[in-house]
Amino acid sequence: MYKLEAKNANLFYGDKQALKNINIGIKPNSVTAFIGPSGCGKSTLLRCFNRMNDLIENARVEGDFLMDEINIYKDINTYELRKRIGMVFQKPNPFPKTIFENVSYGLRINGMKDKKMIEERVVESLKQSALWNEVEGSLHKSALSLSGGQQQRICIARALATEPTVLLMDEPASALDPISTAKIEDLIYTLKNKFTIVIVTHNMQQAARISDKTAFFYLGELIEFEKTKKMFTNPEEEKTQNYITGRFG
Amino acid sequence: MTHLQEELKFLRESLSDMAKMVTSQLKKSYCALADKDIDLANEVIFNEKRVNAIELKIDKDCEHIFALLNPVAHDMRFVFATLKINADLERIGDYAEGIAKLSIQGELNFDQQLIEKLELKKMHDTALDMMRDVTSAYTDDDTKLARSVFTKDTVLNDINFYSTNIVADYCKLNPDRIHQALFLLSIIRKMERVGDHITNIAEEVIFYKEARVLKHGKKKEDNEI
Amino acid sequence: MKNLIRKIKFIDKTFQYLAMAATFFVLIVLCVLIWNIFSNGLLRINGSFFTNLPSRHAERAGIMTALAGMGSLLVITIVIALPIGVLSGVYLEEYGKKNKFASFIEINIANLAGVPSVIYGILGLQLFVRMAKMGNSLLAGALTLSLLIMPIIIVATREAIKAVPDSLREASYGMGATKWQTTSRITIPSALGGILTGIILAVSRAIGETAPLLVIGALVYVPFVPEGPNDQFTTLPIQIFNWTTRPQEAFIINAAAGIVVLLLITFLLNGIAIYIRNKWYKKMRY
Predict the structure, then answer these.
(1) For chain C, what is the domain count?
(2) Which of B66, B81, B216, C81 could form an S-S bond across to C146 if both were Cys, CB 3.0 to 4.6 Å?
(3) pLDDT tens-digit series, residues C52-71
(4) Rounded to an integer, what distance in angstroms lies between the CA atom of residue A164 and that of residue A161?
């Protein structure tokens, strides 16, 4: 059974078709990487799974998107969906609030009032995102006082606090230095035991390092979806081969 | 522990297992000969398939680590060394199988006195000793231990060196047993090759640990002189 | 080649000195003005100047009623203009669809902010004083001033909200927040510094306004402190205006003292605005 699935998915920005008949199934507790040149539709597809494309005025979606066999666009409301599917963005975007307020944001907007429970969830999330040791004494300092890598891990902790089962990551390390990137990658590697992770990345080595399966997109089409080991040693499609060896794109 | 570290640890364990397997093959092939045990010889021949399968798997693992995890510096040398050691071990496995086959061809009926004179037991013990040293040198990153096998290898070389004359003399005296003697000589040759592969492994261990290339070193020194 | 470099250097220096001269010119004019006023008025300021009612005798005249009138006028103005202005700004930036009508409104609001204040006075006179029959009361004055500063507040609010990065809204929506939760918990708090700065600047503009109040009929001589929104009133600028029209030297000194008070209040408000802005930018560095 798939955790996330797209069936005959098309997406249009006005007249421009950004996704062309995508069929993909993502297994639970795995890391799936979306790679491809800029404008290939990988971010767009990612954002279909938590309906972030709804925020774009002229975007139109066709086909079925499923999470646990539930139709994302028909059988569940957007807010409920986004609580179950956490998202981490390209640029670290903590709110200009304290670390505690950042991580507890998702719980508060869900109406959780119990202070003890909120506190437990915050600590738990910070531990899961491997940040607890670094911020233990400074929960009430501004999240903006942290380094870029720490800020990104705050964002991951914030996403984990509402206990989602899926984590979508849109180039989560592209704005970070190599050491912070390595930390985020290790974090993703440990998180996959509990979460289904889909990550969009420009960095092919990153996809190779952390993912179980890799999907290669080109001009809105899904060219190849394979086990990462196979993809990076002997891909089926010539386009994939050319892209991952750096011969185009 | 990072993903790469985990994979490297796993790779190291796999290769150590491979080394142990090959060691046991070597040991069994000699025991089959010494104890005239044809079942044991057959077991060695049968197990060779498994050694080959493990070799292929370690090759694949190394390939994946190179393709997916981009090891650099020490890590990269480690994977390179593992790849080469893997090939060496596979060759040693082949020799073990060859010894078992030759033993069967010789109908496990060798002249005990000749065996003793050729110091086959000493040869086997030394080779096994070197195998153990080089295995723990690899698993424990112990270059001192790795270096110790170079001197031990001279024992094998010496035995091999004298074996030709011993066998020739034996053949003159026992023309009816020339076949047996030649089989034994082949076995000694194989043992000697085993020693060479073990020193190669030691060189690889030193290479990944100290980034120093030892192979072909002697030739270079000779040229300088 | 050498000549060319020399020429470029010459132009560079000339421009630098020209800009410096212009700056000094402005500074000198300002200093002269402030010196002139302070040397005349500063000594006149004492306790009774603040507590005395206006009077025919210059020595006994004070700014009590003017200050009280101005204070209550500003409070009522803020109460009216602030919620409407901020909410309009939030609506236009966060909820309004981005179409031609929206840009039409945007241009018009920007234009309104630049309309001469006396026009607002005429509008207030017709709308509040005559049609709504409020007379020349505090309420009519406050409503007129509200009209005057509302475009400023709207523009400031919009700018402040525009400066909140989209990534913050995305993060909030991504957590499953609704539009209202995102706006009230993330967007507005993040923009609060900018909004506050805009409001204070708008208020400090309202303080200095005389023309629209004169047009709607604020009195130049009010011997009592207003007690309700329907009372007649005067303000400090009008009081100053009144004193400067008197022939006696002593009233001119009174006017200078009034100007000193007015200037100090304006400086104070602007100072607060700058302080808040700096603090906010430090907090919101993205």
Answers:
(1) 2
(2) C81
(3) 777 777 777 778 888 888 88
(4) 8
Same domain membership, residue C167 and residue C33: no
Q: Do C176 and A91 touch (CB under 8 A)?
A: no
Q: Nearest Cβ partner of B70 from A186, A205, A233?
A: A205
For residue A153, count CB atoms less than 10 angstroms from its CB and return exposed for 0-12, middle for 13-18, buried for 19 or more.
buried
- Is the pLDDT confidence value at B198 over 90? yes
Residue B217 is predicted with a pLDDT of 66
- What does the pLDDT read at residue C202? 87
**CA B22, CA B19: separation in Å to the nearest integer?**
5
- Do the Cβ atoms of A91 and C167 come within 8 Å? yes
Q: If we measure between CA atoms, which residue out of A115, A53, A59, A60 comes closest to residue A81? A: A53
Residue B218 covered by a domain: no
| Domain of residue C9, residue span | 2-41
Residue reference for tokens 């008025």: C41
Q: What confidence tens digit (pLDDT) does each residue in C216-226 have?
A: 877 766 777 77
Residues C154 and C270 in one domain: yes
Contact C176 A82 (CB under 8 A): yes
In a domain, B215, yes or no: no
Same domain for C172 and C262?
Answer: yes
Look at residue C220 in the predicted model and tell me its pLDDT. 66
CB-CB neighbors (< 8 A) of A158 in chain C: 171, 175
Tally the domains of chain B.
1
Considering only CB atoms, C176 lies closest to which of A79, A95, A144, namely A79
pLDDT attached to residue B108? 67
pLDDT of residue C194: 86
Closest-CA residue of A relative to C283 is A96
**Residue C13 and residue C80 in one domain:** no
What is the DSSP annotation of B177-217?
GHHHHHHHHHHHHHHHHHHHHHHHHHHHHHHHHH----TTH
**Based on the domain organization, do C133 and C227 belong to the same domain?**
yes
Residue C74 near residue C207 (C-beta atoms within 8 A): yes
Asked whether residue B122 is domain-assigned, the answer is yes
**Nearest-CB residue to A229 (from B2, B4, B64):** B64
Summarised one tens digit per residue, pLDDT across range A227-236 is 999 999 889 9
Phi–psi pair at C204, nearest 5 degrees: -65, -25
Domain that holds residue A93: 4-244
B69 neighbourhood in chain A, CB within 8 Å:
208-209
Contact C171 A82 (CB under 8 A): no
What is the 8-class DSSP label of residue A32?
E
- Taking Cα atoms as reference points, which of A4, A1, A67, A61 lies closest to residue A31? A4
Q: Are residues C7 and C128 in the same domain?
A: no
Q: Which of A88, A93, A215 lies closest to A164 in space, CA to CA?
A: A88
Query: Measured between beta carbons, which residues in chain C are less than 8 angstroms from residue A96?
Result: 168, 189-190, 283-284
pLDDT one-digit tens code per residue, C153-210: 999 999 899 988 888 999 999 988 999 999 999 999 888 888 888 888 888 888 878 7
- A89 interaction partners in chain C (CB closer than 8 Å): 167, 170-171, 174
Residues 173-192 of A with CB under 8 A from B: 182, 185-186, 189
What is the CB neighbour count within 10 angstroms for residue C53?
Answer: 16
B182 touches chain A (CB under 8 A): no
Q: Please give the pLDDT value at position B118.
A: 85
Residue A209 lies in a domain: yes
Range(s) of the domain holding residue B153: 3-210
- Is A249 domain-assigned? no
> pTM of the prediction?
0.76
Q: What is the CATH number of the domain that holds A86?
A: 3.40.50.300
Residues C29 and C132 in one domain: no
- How many domains does chain A divide into? 1
C183 touches chain A (CB under 8 A): no
Tens of pLDDT, residue by residue over B103-151, are 888 776 778 888 888 888 899 999 999 999 999 999 998 889 999 999 9
Alpha-helical regions (H) of chain C: 2-41, 47-51, 64-90, 100-112, 117-124, 138-162, 166-174, 179-182, 188-208, 211-216, 236-244, 249-283
Q: Are residues C23 and C144 in the same domain?
A: no
Inter-chain CB proximity B3 and A229 less than 8 Å? no
Which of B70 and B95 is assigned the larger pLDDT? B95
B70 interfaces chain A, CB cutoff of 8 Å:
yes
